Amino acid sequence: MAENTSYTASYNAPSYSYGGGGGGGAYGAAPSNGSSTSSSSAPPAADGGLRRRSAVTPQYGSGGGYDDETKKSRKPRRAVVEKLDFMFPKVDREFTVKTKGGGVASLVATGLVAILIIAEVITWMAQNGAEVSRTYVDNSLGKKMRVDLNITFPGLACDDLHLNVIDIAGDHQLDIHDTLKKKKLHKHGGPMTRQELEVETNLHRKQQAEKDRILKEKLPADYCGPCYGAAQNEGDCCQSCDDVIEAYTKMKWKTDMLKFTSEQCIREGRDHQEVKKLIRNQGCHLSGYMMLNRVAGNFHIAMGEGIERDGRHIQTFNPEDAPNFNASHIIHELSFGPADGSEPLTGTTKIVTESVGTTGLFQYFIKIVPTSYVGDAFPGNPDLVEISDDGEARLETNRYFITERFNPLMSEGYEEHTTRVEGDAKRHAVEMNHGKGHDHADHHQIRNSVLPGIFFIYEIYPFAVEISKNYVPFTHLLIRIMATVGGVFTLARWADSIIYDRRR
């Protein structure tokens, strides 16, 4: 009789139950929920036979199982991301080969990377804060230039020291003293004491009072000398030549022609006064500043007094007294604007001796370059930096470069003697000091045509320089380091690959 069996299982793998003889225990796979979804009309098997049990579908849910729907949703996303991994493909370790050459290349590359990183850091630190200059045409007009100076003359008295300025624009400044200060020194360089200065001042006052008394005896009692338009108040009188000169000085007018035009100076005989002789055994310290036009010119401290006639500068001095003008000087400071520490003449010392002609003409040829410092680039006093209207810190000054020359007043000369040699009219013997036979040379001092003094001849360049500090961001350093590391290791990999392929 045929058997009719039907199964309704949703799981493909059936479970079986093994029974032992005599209706022994059974082993089988039971569904997790303890229920069966199959039905069978087959008769039970005999004891010890194999019984087929229904297959059930396992359910994996919230109890920690695997969710088919989550698996289907995550798989496409992961596949898309994996397709984007074209730059960093992975190779299993079992497919890689490690060699001795690769280890050496790794060590060399690592050491080279360390050295290059240190070099990059040092370069970045050097570039960070370095000066950067920019040159442009200077089109500024009508500006003044301040000159700060501090000079000591150990062998020149203050009464014989006169600072004059001449420029190509025709401006003459004679014996500048309103912004300059003179301090008398002893011959050994020490400053004069207050008592010594008072004694000298009192002596000068006595001499001036005696001269005024003699002049007043020749004048009427109600005499009131004119000040020639330089009077501070209406009705002021200028009784002497010095009063007229002082009034002109207060008005900042030129005084060089007063000695020859004012009645007071003519009456005192100042119009034909002889040039005074130099004062010896004294020194002078000159310090202060002066304002110059920004055009080429010169300022000098020379022997005698300067005067201006018909637009020309004339220096009056006694030629016989020229050897007594000691041009020795020590420049403590000379700057054309705020000092930035690059002044080449600062600290210059020139001492004349008999071996170099006792005195002479010192000439300093100065090339001035207008310079602007932007931001915190100025190396000098930061308090001098000004803030412009646009909020930018800027300081204008002038750098300069020099060449110098010295021409002594006295130089040693040689006199040549020519004698005709007997028997040959075309042969001559010049007696020079060669140390042979009767040859000899006559030595003597020759006086050169120079004006003893110190001349500063300056010229201003038509272009200017702007100086600022360069700041490199830290991100630039990181970019360079990353490029260095990547490049070194890439080259090392290529070299190792080429060597490995050749060895195979």
UniProtKB/TrEMBL annotation:
Record domain Endoplasmic reticulum vesicle transporter C-terminal: where: 227-496
Top-level taxon: Eukaryota
Membrane-spanning segments: 103-126
Keywords: Membrane, Transmembrane, Transmembrane helix
Family, similarity comment: Belongs to the ERGIC family.
Entry's Gene Ontology cellular component terms: COPII-coated ER to Golgi transport vesicle; endoplasmic reticulum; membrane
Organism per entry: Cylindrotheca closterium
Chain intervals with Low complexity compositional bias: 28-48
Domain Endoplasmic reticulum vesicle transporter N-terminal residues, every copy: 83-174
Membrane topology: Multi-pass membrane protein
Ranges for region Disordered: 22-76
Full protein name: Endoplasmic reticulum-Golgi intermediate compartment protein 3
InterPro entries: Erv, Erv_C, Erv_N
Subcellular location: Membrane
Keyword field contains Membrane: yes
Keyword flag Magnesium: no
